[in-house]
Design goal:
five-stranded parallel β-sheet; Rossmann fold; about 50% helix; alpha/beta; 2 domains; about 325 residues
Length: about 325
């Protein structure tokens, strides 16, 4: 059951840290000037979080690809990470093949499958994460933490973000009952509506994660946008009243003051068009802790939505159908 997997998230983060400590990543023969991560869905979202966690520390750009193609800038001065929980993600395998011909420092993060087989055959560094988890989207902790360790072991970042992941696990474990109660309350207000998620640009990964979890676990359409960018376009789209829409503001008390003012003005404007506006403030002492708190809260929101809508949070038949049809081509 998905709720059991969500319950294990704090323990997964701690286990991921122990796996990362033991990982063997060999130095690259040339200077690493950029990082590229190939990964999709539950295996790719970890890169979005890492990109935000290291933004103020890393001296090299951290770029993410969620498709078949690989940018021309991937070369011998690139660290390229291929992340796929199953090891059989079609797009990531395609990217691996292209990256392997560029001379990039290639590292694989996977539980097995073809990706681990290729890494072993090609002599590529890999971190093998535990098998047996029935849903890649429930394995965010494994992929996120391993990417941080890869960067650390290649001396692109220090240990700060890793240490903050550890404290995040303690935070969400301690606040588990309160997180569930908040999540259930939010779900009860939006289960029959179309959720719209707004947060600031430094936490877009949180919004993307919540959107994806609502899509897959609750079988609901929703969308997200970030402030200040949405103030330059989407805000103009709010022109007619629609009580089907439910707006979730994911906020932090240390958000940039100008963005806090923007959110307050947004609420005033949007409040004219829907009465369902929910503000949720994070907990934690760092960006990492706040983001992990929101991840766990959002995962529980998606679970309670699935309960209220009487759908199977684990079921992804439409994705399975898509893959089976692609296999015929």
């Amino acid at each position: 059951m998905m709720n059991e997997l969500i319950e294990k998230f704090p323990a997964q983060l701690n286990e991921a840290i122990e796996i990362g400590k033991k990982a063997q990543i060999q130095p690259h023969s040339t200077d690493i000037q950029k990082v590229y991560v190939a990964g999709l869905g539950g295996s790719g979202i970890g890169a979005n979080f890492v990109s935000e966690f290291i933004r103020e520390e890393s001296k090299v750009p951290y770029l993410i690809g969620k498709g078949y193609s690989v940018p021309a800038f991937v070369d011998k001065n690139t660290l390229a990470i291929c992340s796929s929980y199953s090891g059989n993600t079609e797009e990531t395998l395609h990217a691996y093949d292209k990256i392997s011909k560029t001379g990039a420092k290639l590292v694989v993060v996977s539980s097995g499958g073809k990706l681990i087989e290729l890494a072993k055959k090609d002599g590529v560094d890999f971190i093998q994460i535990p098998t047996g988890w029935p849903s890649p989207r429930a394995c965010l902790g494994y992929s996120l933490v391993q990417q941080l360790f890869i960067l650390n072991k290649l001396e692109l970042i220090g240990e700060s973000a890793i240490n903050k992941v550890k404290s995040s696990a303690d935070l969400i474990k301690y606040d588990s009952d309160e997180i569930k109660a908040t999540a259930k309350g939010v779900a009860e207000k939006i289960y029959d509506k179309i959720p719209i998620i707004y947060t600031t640009d430094r936490m877009e990964a949180v919004a993307v994660r919540l959107r994806q979890q609502i899509n897959e676990n609750a079988k609901m359409l929703c969308w997200h946008h970030v402030i200040p960018e949405m103030n330059h376009n989407e805000l103009v789209g709010w022109t007619s009243r629609d009580e089907r829409l439910a707006v979730l503001y994911l906020r932090n008390k240390d958000d940039l003051k100008r963005n806090q003012v923007r959110m307050d003005i947004n609420k005033e404007i949007i409040g004219k068009y829907t009465k369902t506006i929910i503000e949720i403030y994070s907990k934690g002492n760092s960006l990492v802790e706040k983001a992990i708190y929101f991840v766990h809260l959002g995962d529980w929101i998606s679970w309670y939505l699935s309960e209220l809508r009487e759908v199977d949070a684990m079921e992804i038949k439409v994705i399975d159908y898509l893959k089976s049809e692609l296999a015929k081509v």
